[in-house]
Amino acid sequence: SQPVDIKCCFSPSAPTPNCPSIVSRSEWGARAPKSTTGMAKSLPYVVIHHTTGGTCTAKSA
Predict the structure, then answer these.
(1) DSSP string, 2-55
(2) Model pTM greater than 0.90?
(3) Which partner from 21, 25, 27, 40 sits 20 to 30 angstroms from 12, CA to CA?
């Protein structure tokens, strides 16, 4: 297997100009979750990809 090159676009302490800003649940007015599910083990890596809705280019959208 080949090594995986992981790049992080978000760091609260050091934002990167070319990366998207992350809008928190409280910033966009999300309801509290109905439930949560814990994981037995931590994951070695994760990919988060927004797949629904139209393009969002501003916090006001």
Answers:
(1) PPP-------TTS--TTSPPPPPTTTTTPPPPS-----SS--S-------SSS-
(2) no
(3) 40
